[in-house]
Amino acid sequence: MSAYVLTRWEPENTSFWEKTGSRVAHRNLLISIPALMLAFSIWMLWSVVVVNLDRAGFRFTENQLFWLTALPALSGATLRIFYSFLVPIFGGRRWTAISTGLLLIPALGIGFALRDPSTSYPTLLILALLCGLGGGNFSSSMANISFFFPKEKKGLATGLNAGVGNLGVSLAQFMVPIVISVGVFGALGGKPQSYLESGAEAHIWLQNAGFIWVPVIVVATITAWFGMNDIAEVRASFADQAVVFKRAHNWIMCWLYVGTFGSFIGFSAGFAILSKILFPETHPMSYAFLGPLVGSLTRPLGGWVSDKVGGARVTLYTFMGMALAVVALLWFIPAQGQAGNFNGFLTVFIILFALSGVGNGSTFRMIPIIFLTERMRDVAGKDEAAQRGARLAAAKESAAVLGFSGAIGAYGGFFIPRSFGTSISMTGDVTAALISFIIFYLTCVAITWWFYARRNAAMPC
To answer: Helix, strand, coil shares of the chain as percentages rounded to 5?
Structure first.
């Protein structure tokens, strides 16, 4: 047995946790977080690259730009479905290292492609799809970390892993405008592209948007391989985990997670280019990182508060707030001849990001509680061996659902930018898209209340 494999892992055993478990679990969490942050940075690269394509000599329509921002979410969400089940098959350490190393493919590809403005649009679409490799990592990362912590600490642990990991979106949107403005890699990185700004020639090294991540990815991959652990007890085949497809709460939580994480990643992907289109006099990259930053920071808060008062209650109020925020957004966008109000637009969007982060934390806190409660109900009155088996089964099922719901939720990252693009092309503004968001959030309010938050709900959590 490898020294990296934990043959005994009992996080619910207080003595074991205090003596050994806490130290090992937190070491794995500390390595997982930056690896996941890099994954999010690669996943959302196109949200900032598209804003600068015209300066580098690329000429595309608004609809084409929205496709470039939407496709990483589409491929990332699809990959998450498969990644959801890979940790119990390969082991968390192995898969974290492998999946992090795979990020080199889009990072290098984007770097080489963006050196030449004659690179074809289909090539850029393929690279956008490859950025989905970063999106896939979330499901396996969250499933892996959920195994390491006891029930009462899962909300904060998964909230930290996801919340700080989500900061990769803001990191990309903050760092890329800086690194593309200087020749970071000298001759090795290639020649800059030239453009006119205020009548004077300026230069941009758009390829640095990809190249800058390469050395960091290499370090993160090596650190994961030599610093993390696999848990022997949680090995399971796909067939063992596929039982979650028969669980009604798996599908319910998928719907709710589309509303929280789907909103976070969809707004992250589309906010910068949407701002540039609706308010062309503004400079979107000077503030676009603020929304994802706020949403990332509020995710651990959502998990922590949910540990205290219950995830269902937090989720319910979050969706109410999101619906009201989108109603407010309708007052600030340019529509029907009105110029719109950028300050109001930005403020409401930041509120939406903050609420989506809270909801991400609260929904992920709900999942382990739901499946542990279900499995323990099945063995009520039975001996300790049966109850221990139920806890292990609940851990495997909740890990699979954490990953799978993360996969389904990520499709919001595709539909939101495409909704904006479609609404603009068909009606001239984004009002229709926003109205559809309001209707969807109201369905989430109703579902959360009925199944989890109302008095005498079948599964209070």
So the answer is: 75, 5, 20
